[in-house]
């Protein structure tokens, strides 16, 4: 019985969706079925065909002939139902048990009749399900409509059960297919059940069915079915479960249960919506996804990195803006109150000129944007905000936060990065893993296809090469030559920058006003240009080396890294020279100021001792050169010029080129798009390195120019839009589309190195060079970090500073550091052992997998043999059957 | 006044461009500068010089030796955009596989590709070669005769291709082309192909081969074959003839007709 009904249950769903037309066809088919019992498969196929055509037919289901048929059918149903009603009235309410018995008996009869079919069905479990389902639905369609009629008549109070019984009464007179129909009606009953009227057994059955559906849904993914069938089955099962889950549970609990089920469903839906909402809230997600689909994941990884960087910078900006700039602007002394907050008299006339502002002079220099503007007043405003302390802590905090974030991200990425060496199973890797499934653009797909093909070719060639291995000397020579050329290039660029910086110092001594704009901005221009063009040269040179693309990319990154680092450090060394110059100058000015002050006071005293001291305009007070502001200005200028060159190159190199290529192609003698200039590709490595070094400069200069994070946020924001646009508008997908997995951590590692290298000079200046005497929050102190000492002494209770002084005793600090080193060593060794254990486990898993595979293979073989046997048996049975029909 | 340091910073860019596009510079030198210079010095056209060389070095009646002589001259002395030995091999293979009886060649130039095709043709096949330029056609004629192909195998038509194609059926009594080789002006690839389609000379299975579709390139032609859906097509990627670094392709189209 269950063998028959359960598979039927699985498909008792799409009933109400079908039109009247279906019902008619069912009738016809049923009349045919007597003759076609053995040929179930044929009808099955027919069914499929009909189902395909349903869309068409349903639209004109008010065909004349069909309608007539339908009317007749309705009449019959109505008659039946009336009879059933009478019977019900007579027999009363205690019918349930009896009915049960009757049902089972009927089913038994049914089963007996279907026994042959059952056999076949069991054998073809795979398709059998579908088949049974179809059969089932057929019948249900009919009864579905019948039921609707019933509802019309009886006000919906009379349920299927009556029908069932009624049919069962008739059963004895009916032919075998009618019995079939009855069985179907039982299934239908489960479909239209009202939970109140279900007996415990039925409930049990229903529950079982529901459970089975659930199990089916879970295991559906692993089933060896075609996708279409899977989808259909999944949808049906889900509908079924949704419908009947609520009906389970007993008595009073049932409603609560249904309610609970509904609520979980709602909750899940809400969660899903919330998840979607969250995704929608991620900035630029759609843009990045679009780019990913067009250009592959390597280009997208740059944009994801850019977004991540933007987030970091937002936090840095929040820290500096909220804790340094705003308090000083709101609560500190206003502009013009003290000399450091006033533009000097000599510069006043040109302080608002655009050229001056663009060079971060004039009013820009004497504002919260730079270090020199801040006062050394210990607490500002009614909040008693400790301004110098806050300035120092924010400076340290930004760096500490950056370290934390970078290292945390690295650790997270390290967990994600898969293991697996690239060297073994080279061809298998290529075969099965080279496709990038995120590509959604035909052109990129073409490119990817081509690149896979070429990579195969290359791999085969490589394999051959490694077997031949004859001209290794030439290759080696070429590689050495390439590295020599690159070194020459690096040295040349380093010398050029050094030369330029020297020249600029000479210009500075002469006075910048005497020189042209080009000469004044020479350093930044040269640095940007070299940073832009040298990587191209490296790229060309690296063609000599004949490395694998991935290795080549690493070399390329390393070289660009060296170049940028060299440039940056040349710049810093030059800056250090300048700082020393400024400090010399400062000494002289300091001496002069004391002279000036004494002369001033002497003068006033000699004139009139009782008069109030002469008030001097703060603009007139002579002041020191303030090297911190100078450093900040240099960095801001560098960032601005860097940004400008990047954008201009983007516009010229990408956009203008694309426009020219696109529109000159109509009147040019060769194909510009496919041939020589072509469109540009997106240079991932260059852009990533540019971003990283830009960030390095921010970290370096942020202490002396609090406006830098804000500037960087602005830059990254604009970059995001501009580059997204430029990529989509004027770049073509790379010819070698490679996957970016694993490169993220490489970027992070570089970022960490840069972070370290950029904090080094900043910390060096903070620790070793005394602050200027008349500008900045630390003026008047010997060292910048004295501010902590000061705070400890004056703001904390005495015991705290005592404790602190004890704690900072070398006798305590050294053991602590030792302890830390030991702890790190311990953690490292444990992680290593864990890794080893992991590898072992993986091996074990692998072995187990192999074992399982073997076992499965054996089982599959056996199953196949069984199937064969069954087929032959079935064939024999069918033959027999047809013979019996014949006789 | 731009300072010298900034100018120096452009050196890497210059070097990069020089190195990256060296093949194009070499091609420019060989195909244009050398040609102009020799034209001035000798007073002969490039094709005539090539013919002289072939006449002095190759064995008459032997197509292979004539082709070799051409290859040597184009490699060592000057540049002529023949189909070249590498792409020529692909062409040979296609001809062998196809075994066409009626072949149309657009753009004979100085006869290299004509000889190449005629060499690979089966017995009884006929090649119609179209050349627009009078002087080139005269040289092509001489080369073809030198290679030992008579009027029955190769017929040279001296006329622009857009005038010849509509008259092929009426004047030359053709009703089907088995193989078409295009190597004339890249601009006329697309209109000529459309004209061929319109003339009804292409039957199912007719093969059309177009050289230099990537460099100098025929973008409209490629767009047309992509869009029309009349062809099964692929591009054989290779390098430009007598040059190593410039990528070029040869399009192979098989006419399928309207489905």
Can you give a write-up of this model?
- The complex is a heterodimer of chains A (887) and B (259).
- Chain A has 887 residues and is mainly alpha-helical.
- Chain A is 76% helix and 0% strand.
- Chain A is built from 30 helices and 2 strands.
- In chain B, 53% of the residues lie in helices and 19% in strands.
- The termini of chain B are far apart.
- The mean pLDDT of chain B is 89.
- Chain A: The chain crosses the membrane at residues 308-330, 351-374, 389-407, 477-501, 525-544, 556-576, 635-656, 746-767, 803-827.
- Chain A: Keywords: Membrane, Transmembrane, Transmembrane helix.
Give the key terms.
heterodimer, A: mainly alpha, two-stranded parallel ribbon, 30 helices, B: 259 residues, alpha/beta, Rossmann fold, 2 domains, 12 helices, 7 strands
Structural class of chain B: alpha/beta
Q: Which fold name fills CATH's third level, the topology of the largest domain in chain B?
A: Rossmann fold
Spatial strand sequence of the major β-sheet of chain B:
3-2-1-4-5-7-6
Choose one word for the global shape of chain B: globular
Q: Average pLDDT of chain B, to the nearest integer?
A: 89
Oligomer: heterodimer
CATH architecture of the largest domain in chain B: 3-Layer(aba) Sandwich
**Element pattern of chain B in H and E:** HHHHHHEHEHEHEHEHHEE
Compute the number of strand runs of chain A.
Answer: 2
C-alpha Rg of chain B (nearest Å): 20 Å
Q: Which CATH class of the largest domain in chain B applies here?
A: Alpha Beta
Helix amount of chain B, in percent? Answer: 40-55%
Q: Mind telling me the CATH superfamily name of the largest domain in chain B?
A: Vaccinia Virus protein VP39
Largest interface, Cβ cutoff 8 Å: A-B, 30 and 23 residues
Strand tally of chain B is 7
**End-to-end span of chain A in angstroms?**
29 Å
GO molecular function, one term (chain B): catechol O-methyltransferase activity
Protein name (chain B): catechol O-methyltransferase
EC number (chain B): 2.1.1.6
Catalytic activity (chain B): a catechol + S-adenosyl-L-methionine = a guaiacol + S-adenosyl-L-homocysteine + H(+)
